[in-house]
Structure prediction request, 425 residues.
Amino acid sequence: MGMEWLRKTVAVGQRAPFPETIGPSEQNANESLFNILLAHYDLHQAQGQRSCAREVLELAERLTGDHVDLQYKWLRKWAKWLESVGRRGEAVELLQAHLRRLRGKLLNPSRNAEIRMELGIMLDREGRKLEALKFFKDAAARYRKLSHVYNLVAALFNSASVLHDLGNFSEALKVCRKAIAEGSAGYKDLSSHIALQMANTLEAEKQTVSACNHYRQAEEFYGQNGNRRQQSDILYRLGWLAVREKRYPEGARFLRNSLELKRESDYAIGLAWYHWSRAEAYRAGGTLKKAVSHYRSALNLALNANLDAVAARCRIVLYQLCAKPDQSLTAFVKYGNAGAADSIVKQGRSGLYLDHGSDGYSLGVFHEPGDTARAPLDRRVLSRLVQDLEKVTRASGSLPGPSLEKQRIALTRWTERQNKDQGAN
Prediction:
């Protein structure tokens, strides 16, 4: 089983033919091959190709043999696959059975904690909050003993999130503060999540001033992490909290900043799909050098906009087109640089949403081939944001200005057309 066969297993949107047997001479490299197959599985999963992902995973299982660590890695991937196809109950049972086998064994304390964390996450998604909370607390205690600070803070954050959902706000805040004391400041992603969780919980407790302070902190952290979508949503919330207290100029400023970030995010998404489409066209025409250039641009923009499915597709095709004979897919799994697209994406702030096809914000660019269920909802939120900003600007004693009026009209037409299309279907 050589690299050429592996290259075929990642043909975009196609199921690859798998060999029936694995030769004895290749079994010496089982672990390396196993990890390569898991990389293929991850990329198939990112594209939503569940059948292909399962076939790769079934082949990987044949390489585990008596290797306990490989069996464990495979088990976790299989549980994730089960969850992704709506069989979460089976995934939970699988992990619980493995946990029972680990009881009383001290050889793998880290694995004990990991399984508890995975179970907590799955049970939380299943709505079994009290069971999830028990596993998160148990995982946190184990990570503390292991001095795994990042995982400890993550387990505490998960506990706080569940406590909030259960309506135990005071305890949720206490756990968030404990996470900060344990060292969350050293991790930007966790710091942003914890700040936002505290803001949500403080707002639920009617502590609006403290909530706003934490929303601002969370917005800053998400900005540092490049998560424009979350940053824009937080600014939108801050805007309405200000409006509720009749601080109209401040509210308008927050809403305007939210709109700018929304434009920036949508520009990155639209541009990523544009470069992907251009790359596909050049590839189909045999102009591979130009295709590779567009695939790289699409990858960087997709990473910048958190479009995992597009990034996965780009990495697969770049692997197919650029990999050397002895290179495996694992060399391409982390390929790309989100920061390389920053200067391009920021141009989106000064752009406008227009209702014709000559602009970068045309409806054609916003169309996302074959996917996201959240896209229509986001568009409605965007339309509401523009209308809200116009109202709040007027309430603050200022006129909205021609560009805002133009966007409102364009988005109104856009939404009407979308509603007609949905009605026709």
